[in-house]
Each structure stands twice: as C-alpha cells, then as structure tokens.
Amino acid sequence: MKEMTAAQLKQMIEAGERIQVIDVREDEEVAFGMIPSAIHIKMGDIPHRMNELDKNETYMIICRSGVRSEHVCTYLEAHGYNVCNIVDGMLGWDGEVV
Question: Fewer CB within 10 Å, N or C, the chain?
C-alpha cells in the first residue's frame, strides 16, 4: 500500500498537483474542519459509494490518525482502486481547513 504523510500531501496540494482526497471520518469529526478540496465519504459508506470513484484516479485517503484510512485503502485496493494512505491523518495536517 502506498503511504505518505499529511505534510507531503500538503506540499503536493500547494504545488498545484491535481489531488483527489477522500476524508473517511465521521460527520462530527469533519465538523471541526477538513482539507478544502477533500470529498467526505464516511468509512462505513465506502462499500456503497465506491462506484462513484474512478479506477483510473489515485485517491489520498485520510482519517483522524491513519488507522481507518489504512483499512479503507486495503478495502479499495482489493477492489482495484489506486489509493494512498495518509499515515498521520488529520492529526498531522497543519494546513487550511474548511
């Protein structure tokens, strides 16, 4: 499984790279802020919503600390999706949130 830190993700976004971020935290967690360009799909909704994802894209998966996102990455990889786990999650994010 591909992995990177929140700091590396921030650098890619700041460099203007086209990044697809999926935040898999619960509603009450994202209420405190999420990465501006991120799409919110709760971990439990991934099996029902993965048909919304493009298998030709790479998705950066983020949660609070990197554990749930790792599980989501394992699941999506098993279904043929290109994913990268943000290992330190939003705890490691020091960028803008909305």
Answer: C
